[in-house]
Amino acid sequence: MSDTTAIRFLVIAPDPSLEEEFDIALEGVKGKRCVVSYERDTRSAIETARVRQPDIVVVEMGARVAELKAFAEEIAAVAPDAAVVAVYRRETLADPEAESSLIIEALRARVMDFLRRPLSSSEVANVIARLQRGDARRGSGPLGKVISFVSNKGGVGKSSVSVNVACELARRHPGEVILLDLSLQLGVAASMLDLDVTQSMADAAEQLDRLDITLLQQLALPHESGLRVLPAPPTVLAASAVDDRVVSRVIALARRAYKFVVIDTFPVVDGVVMSVLDLSNIVCVVTQVIVPILNGTSSLLETLEQLGIDEERTWIILNRAQKGFPGQLTPADVEAHLNRAVRHEVAFDKKLPMATNMGRPHVLQAGPWNRFRRSIGRIVDDIETATLASATGRGDLGGDDDEGNQSPPARRLRAVGGDL
């Protein structure tokens, strides 16, 4: 949380009076832009936190701190940057000493601060100020961009494009790019990079309780290009331990540790892929100039729309674009078929299969005028310069929020505060 960006609140308010109190209190907080999501129960709040990545989560504290601790741990797993703030009524406590002992227990349960009801603007403003000072001490910075690659079927070159894009990004930003292979059962990124899978996503799942930025960086395998890679698990059995909770946690940490997070996915829209889509700033839909594949791509685009993935962050990547053979569809034909603009074309190169078999990404071997390398370079140029509307509604990462981008149909969301 900086002093210039909007502060995102997630308030769990089973009692409508808390919602009303919170709105009134924020109306009196001057000099801050605040955006608030409300949920009625903790289960819905966890899902909202996973998608929206709030700065502050406000939850009522009862006498059973164990429940609060469990909730705070779940929030930490899905939204590592969020601070949990507990609200309580003093009159509900059995005796005056109970307040201090309960607060101590709550602090041990990962609660960062407290608010007493009835809420006041000054108390809310003080909590915001304390948490912002804490952010400054931790040196929190803007989150990295998340670029995921999806397709409706295998064999369209999605993994090849994602690996080469990740390598070109790493060449330009060594040490600042991580590739997550979330094609969990059929991941090929490690093979394409000639890496031995000594650690994988399965290790992240196994150590989820203590997974933090440092451990994630230790698990990621280094590549000579400057890229870090967290491969898919080596076996189907190991892959079964990686669920959407693990994936959300890994992506959230990766965004804090790296400037760019590139994700390869499995061509099925399941819980894991939906978690990836929720947290992606750019969703690259890879397709080819073949009618049956384009039909499937059209269906995938409709599914993405239904999931709330807007066109602004959905990029159509036309792979293996060639010229000159009879009956080939043109990019204009593809755009007409999909009713979407093609964002990028990846040129065909007959040396690409050999590079893939040898585990030497072609973008790192080809000359500067090679058509394949130049087309990958244009994608990377676009990623570097794009102003993004993220899944969490943050607009350009680290920039101002736009209330209009933030509310999916099933959520209630509104902006409040003196600066809006």
State the gist of this model.
The chain is of the alpha/beta class and 420 residues long. It has helices at residues 16-27, 42-52, 65-78, 96-108, 121-138, 158-172, 189-192, 201-206, 213-219, 236-239, 244-257, 271-278, 291-306, 331-338, 352-358, 362-365, 371-385; strands at residues 7-12, 34-39, 56-60, 83-88, 111-116, 145-150, 177-182, 221-222, 228-230, 260-265, 282-287, 314-321, 342-347, 412-416.
Topology:
Layout: E1 7-12, H1 16-27, E2 34-39, H2 42-52, E3 56-60, H3 65-78, E4 83-88, H4 96-108, E5 111-116, H5 121-138, E6 145-150, H6 158-172, E7 177-182, H7 189-192, H8 201-206, H9 213-219, E8 221-222, E9 228-230, H10 236-239, H11 244-257, E10 260-265, H12 271-278, E11 282-287, H13 291-306, E12 314-321, H14 331-338, E13 342-347, H15 352-358, H16 362-365, H17 371-385, E14 412-416
Helix pairs in contact: 1-5, 2-3, 6-17, 11-12
Q: How is this structure best described in words?
A:
The chain has helices spanning 16-27, 42-52, 65-78, 96-108, 121-138, 158-172, 189-192, 201-206, 213-219, 236-239, 244-257, 271-278, 291-306, 331-338, 352-358, 362-365, 371-385, and strands spanning 7-12, 34-39, 56-60, 83-88, 111-116, 145-150, 177-182, 221-222, 228-230, 260-265, 282-287, 314-321, 342-347, 412-416. The protein is of the alpha/beta class and 420 residues long. It folds into 2 domains: 7-141 and 398-416, Rossmann fold (3-Layer(aba) Sandwich); 145-385, P-loop containing nucleotide triphosphate hydrolases (Rossmann fold, 3-Layer(aba) Sandwich). Helix 2 packs parallel to helix 3 (65-78) and helix 6 (158-172) packs across helix 17 (371-385).
